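Entry, Tuesday afternoon. Goal for today is a structural model of the target with flavin-adenine dinucleotide bound, before we commit to ordering more compound. Inputs were pasted exactly as handed over by J.K., no edits. I checked the ligand SMILES twice against the vendor sheet because last time a stereocentre got dropped in transcription.
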Amino acid sequence: MSVLENGNLAALLTPAHHALRARARDFFTDARLAGWRESANGPLTGRAWRELGEAGYLGVSLPTEFGGAGLGVLGSLVLGEAVSRLGDVGLPLGMHVQNEVACQWLVDADPALRAEFLPRLLDGRLVACQADTDPSADEPTTAVRDGDDLVINGAKLFVINGAVAGLCFTRVLLDGSPAIVAVDKDRPGLRVAEVYDKLGTRSADSARLEFTDVRVPATRIVSSGGVGRHLRWNRVMTLLRFLIAADAALVHRRLLDRITRYAGERALGGRPLAAWPVNSHALARFRADLELAEAGVARACARLDSGSWPVPEVAALKWFCVERACALAAACCDLEGGAGYMWGNPSLRDLAQLRGLRMAGGSQTTMLTITNHSFAARAEWDTAGVAR
Ligand SMILES: Cc1cc2nc3c(=O)[nH]c(=O)nc-3n(C[C@H](O)[C@H](O)[C@H](O)COP(=O)(O)OP(=O)(O)OC[C@H]3O[C@@H](n4cnc5c(N)ncnc54)[C@H](O)[C@@H]3O)c2cc1C
């Protein structure tokens, strides 16, 4: 079983989705992933991205008029299911940034900017990152205008694809307002200051980028100022958070299948571990969580593909899927006893991946804050009789 067998989603799968699913299952193998990595446990090389592009796995969700495969968010989910079998969440995270975040910025961007970068993102010659996280709220990355140029100063932390990327969608404060600027990596003054040694998600690199008087033409502004910028930001981040929620649900299913087998076979005190009430209750709860997570993923996917942008609902979904998958991974490590504490233990490895998903796309606390504020505002509008 998989989230794609959820009745609501299964009905939406077209022959093109089925063909992608079959093709991707054969393509994403452990051996291929091993050949793509810089070292045994290291990140993907640029060559891997070119192969992904040549094989047609970049831009799957993007409309055909922009050079994509036109398979929508559901297409990304189909791809996510195949990639998830590799057991490392770095590759899906890196692909979401390339396929959904970067491509989405360019779809909405000025046509000249789109023409310059989008084809190379789709064929994998160019890798993108989203440089968002400042060292602190008091140290924002800034851009100031100088003639026809912008001059950027600051630093960005924990950037997925930051080392391998050639193009950085960088969030800056421009004239005091947030803006997104596309910065090519080879601009003087932009450097990879650190590549982090991460606990999980290791097949994508995470890097600290530093900008010192980096000069780019002002035509590289992708989005700036006002409500329009805010809406586009919400759209891109909602797409990313949805895919992270789906990644967590896919890990949840893998963990649950494995621990159900294990706890059914491992006998302690005369009966299988799973037959002890304390464990059977916990496992039943985790099964119910999976049903809820997959139903939420199916519903959100259908809504996103129908053109609506359910920002707080997706924030709540990301919170739920990641929170419950983390709890399950920790419980699996306990159920596996001493073995659950050893390097290489699959549950421990998944717990590490899921720790990353707690922060990727915004922290779990941020998800709760978005959800709480939006739902509270809606409740107040409803009470006041305001039409929405
Ligand atoms: C796997 C992974 C991938 C990532 N990918 C990227 C990427 O591609 N690009 C990028 O720019 N960044 C990326 N990040 C960074 C991520 O977005 C940030 O780590 C995250 O937003 C939290 O920011 P921070 O690390 O500065 O923590 P802080 O802002 O210091 O927050 C620490 C904790 O405090 C909580 N907190 C903060 N303010 C408050 C408050 N007022 N009240 C209560 N609690 C609060 C936060 O929710 C969080 O739990 C990634 C991180 C990880 C782990």
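Residues 286 and 327 are 9 Å apart (CA to CA).
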